[in-house]
Amino acid sequence: MQGKNRRGVVAIDGPAGAGKSTVARQVSRDLGYIYIDTGAMYRALTLKALRLGTDLYDHGALTELAHHTNIKISYYDHTQMIIMDGEDVSTEIRSPEVSRNVSLVALVPGVRLEMVKLQRELAREGGVVMDGRDIGSYVLPDADCKIFLTASTAERARRRARDLEAAGYTINLAELEQEIIRRDEIDSTREMAPLIKADNAILIDTSDMGFEEVVNEIKKCILQST
Ligand code: DC
After folding, report:
1. Cβ of 206 less than 6 Å from ligand 1
2. Is 145 in the pocket of ligand 1 (CB under 6 A)?
3. Is 66 in the pocket of ligand 1 (CB under 6 A)?
4. Where is 121: in which H helix or E strand?
5. Is the CB of 140 under 6 A from ligand 1?
6. Residue nearest to atom 14 of ligand 1 (CA)
7. Would you say the CB of residue 131 lies under 6 angstroms from ligand 1?
8. How far does residue 165's CA lie from ligand 1's centre (Å)?
9. Which ligand 1 atom sits nearest the alpha carbon of residue 184?
10. Ligand 1 within 6 A of 16 CB?
11. In what order do the strands lie in the sheet with 145-150?
12. How does pLDDT run along the chain (226 residues), one tens digit per residue?
């Protein structure tokens, strides 16, 4: 589709804690687009695997689990809710236990294929801001606007700590920073669709940038390309 005011597709990727979700949520609100947090899908499946005691190194079992899990995204007052097998798990998927284990689940090709199917389906109509690790490079290679957000590890750990503390968790900042490094390492080195900046993505380092500035930069990109 060409022409003014086409409802485009924005892909936002980057490592843990780079500020993707906060920025993506604001951009989607301002543009009247829907926001899709793809990490939440991998988190929901991880939660189910942890509850069932599934061996997180058993790729066959995790693939089977993905095939038999119903994951849906719905919205309440612009906020994404993630529904797993009919249950709203939006809060529980943010627990430190899920965060510690999600990379192991997300590296399984069979799991990814199942999630990517759903993600492409959700983006089909346009008017979407999707964030994740492989959105610009693999899930939506034809996205109108691709952004790769990053920030220093220390800053990313501080941001994650702030979010977790606000949710009532007690945090050890040094441990959190180590966990983020470990998670980025697994996400960037996995075989299928690793965390990577797409060639034509705009790199934005948010370490020293204000929130509004980042949001405006992304809005400028999408308004120029649609
Ligand atoms: O963005 P997040 O922290 O909620 O993501 C959770 C995990 O899911 C992250 O460690 C990597 C994985 N993930 C992925 O592999 N691909 C995506 N598109 C989104 C997330």
Report:
1. no
2. no
3. no
4. helix 109-123
5. no
6. 133
7. no
8. 20
9. 10
10. yes
11. 34-37, 128-132, 9-13, 145-150, 202-205
12. 444 567 899 999 999 989 999 999 999 999 999 999 999 999 999 999 999 999 999 999 999 999 999 999 998 877 889 999 999 999 999 999 999 999 999 999 999 999 999 999 999 999 999 999 999 999 999 999 999 999 999 999 998 899 889 989 898 999 999 999 999 999 999 999 999 999 999 999 998 888 999 999 999 999 998 8
At 222, list the tokens.
């999408």
Q: Cβ(73)–Cβ(123) under 8 Å?
A: no
pTM of model > 0.85: yes
CA-CA-CA-CA torsion sign (134, 112, 184, 211) = positive
Q: Is 100 helix (H, G, I), strand (E, B) or coil?
A: helix
Ligand 1: distance of its center to the CA of 4 in Å?
33
Identity at 85, one-letter amino acid code: D
**Rounded Cα distance, 180 and 154, in Å:** 10
Q: Is the CB of 132 under 6 A from ligand 1?
A: yes
